[in-house]
Write a structure and sequence with these properties.
259 residues; mainly alpha; two-stranded antiparallel ribbon; 10 helices; 61% helix; globular
Length: 259
């Protein structure tokens, strides 16, 4: 049963080791179920439920799609060969697609339970997508090889720093792109300007991502910044109006009675 209320607030990983381990475990478990257990339970579902549940697993295949795209770009940089579709017209098409996606994202935000605090561009979500695709690929390989690994709890507190967690997989990608890029230029082949732009933005994004490993990550929870709150029963009509939770009111009343 869906209850359109914020019943509780939880903690999420606050650093890269905790987040990456969480995403790796989620991806591995979902892919393992889809590849090995799905057929056993699909017969109990309706056709609509089968389609929806099967498509749910495709999200964790983005590691494979990203590496294929990067390899195709590397090949084009090294050889200078590019499809006819790679022209300036594609920028217009991509811009229209991106604008449509952004509008859909903002439309979806009107259904958030706490829109006053949750609305926005959500650029950090895009940064997380860029960071975790190698670990989705790792999860897929572990499932295909049928590796059985112990369950790892997700740390919700600051752990010991683990340098180079993001450095090595993404640095290898950046090195591969730069090598192909330099080889294509030195060979004298004419590279399309969009290839130069794609290579530059990809490498720059990877370097920015790697630099975030040196950030000072915050504590997992600061009560002074976000007290316990809850949205009223009808968030559409109240537009995210925040009220105290019954639990908070109970402890407040108990404290007042004792004083």
């Amino acid at each position: 049963m869906y209850v359109p209320r914020i019943l509780a607030r939880g903690l999420t990983p606050v650093d890269w080791p905790g987040y990456v381990q969480q995403q790796l475990r989620w991806a591995r478990s979902v892919l393992d179920i889809k590849l090995r257990k799905y057929r056993q339970i699909a017969g109990k579902l309706s056709v609509k439920e089968r389609i929806i549940s099967f498509m749910h697993g495709f999200y964790y295949l983005q590691g494979a799609t990203v590496i294929i795209g990067l390899l195709v770009m590397t090949y084009m940089l090294a050889t200078g060969l590019a499809p006819r579709a790679l022209n300036y017209r594609i920028l217009v098409d991509f811009g229209l697609l991106l604008a449509t996606s952004v509008l859909c994202q903002f439309y979806r935000q009107r259904f958030y339970l706490d829109p006053r605090n949750e609305w926005g561009w959500h650029w950090r979500a895009g940064l997380l997508q860029l960071a975790k695709w190698p670990y989705f690929l790792l999860a897929l390989s572990q499932v295909l090889l049928n590796r059985r690994l112990p369950y790892v709890l997700t740390s919700k507190v600051k752990g010991e720093p683990r340098p180079h967690l993001l450095l090595w997989p993404h640095l290898l990608v950046a090195a591969l792109i730069c090598t192909a890029w330099i080889a294509g230029i030195m060979s004298g082949r004419a590279l399309h300007p969009l290839l130069h732009l794609s290579a530059f933005t990809t490498v720059l994004g990877i370097l920015v991502l790697i630099a975030t490993e040196h950030m000072n990550f915050p504590e997992p929870y600061d009560p002074s910044l976000r007290p316990s709150r809850q949205v009223k029963d009808h968030p559409r009509s109240n537009r995210g109006e925040i009220v105290s939770t019954p639990l908070q009111e109970y402890f407040t009343s108990q404290s007042n009675n004792q004083s």
